[in-house]
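Weekly modeling sync, notes
Attendees: S.R. (lead), two postdocs, one rotation student

Agenda item 3: backlog of single-chain predictions. S.R. asked that every request posted to the team notebook include the full sequence so nobody has to chase files. The rotation student volunteered to paste the first one in as an example of the format we agreed on. Action items at the bottom.

Example entry:
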Amino acid sequence: MAERFRHVAIVGKHQAPGIRPVLEEIAQFLCSSGIDVSLEAETALNTGMTGYDALSHDELGKACDLAVVVGGDGTMLGFAREMACYGVPLLGINQGRLGFITDIPIERWRESLAPVLAGDYEVESRAMLEGGVLRDGESIFSGLALNDVVVSRGGTAGMVELKVEVGEQFVANMRADGLIVASPTGSTAYALSAGGPLMHPSIAGWLLVPIAPHTLSNRPIVLPDLGEVSLEIVAGRDASVNFDMQSLASLLHGDRITVRRSEHQVRFLHPKGWSYYATLRRKLRWYL
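Predicted structure, as returned to the notebook:
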């Protein structure tokens, strides 16, 4: 039997013009359904909404059994990372542009949210990436990502050269503007722009996608999500690494970026009848 919800968190892209009235309507709708409502602290602070508890991410994770995220995929990415360790399911209402993971159109939030609150929904789990940067064998950075881990060249420098290993096996030294390790969720993000394939979210694998490679035979490759991917900086100045929106700049030669499957997953809720393929058709305009 589907889970019913007692305490819902509301998170909003508070920089978006006109978002406060929408958040107010959603909060009132939830309250009228007999559900306790709390706001993410930054959302409450930046919208000026009062009358609801404003909680930190940790407090939301411990208290709430559902989070409604209003904004674009960037808003969802940041909050999803924070909630992953608590297992709080997320429902995305899209006020952005593409919205691959915030899939409910904002003009249809009421008709989509009501059945979910009544227990009529579909649950989907998405794998996450985790890893960090090792310098002289010591960890200097760690991160968690839902979309991807991206190693990029410096802003004014030429290409970066990376030694790529998967597990204990050497793959190649790749010279490019950068390299993307993407989850299936991230296959519709930067990896897609760089020429990578789409991956269904249920596939247990990663994408390794070079960005503008020096050698055109360096092509995207699909990897199993077992073991660890290692990217060592061989050449190039001021390279950086980005775990979704968490960055470390000025990597040095010999620094090693490690990426592996996280023990945490993100749980998304969708209205009944949701289809990944319908999302692709709509967002990528696959129309006849």
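Discussion: group reviewed the output briefly. The chain has two domains: 7-119, 128-263.
Action items: rotation student to repeat for the remaining queue; S.R. to check formatting next week.
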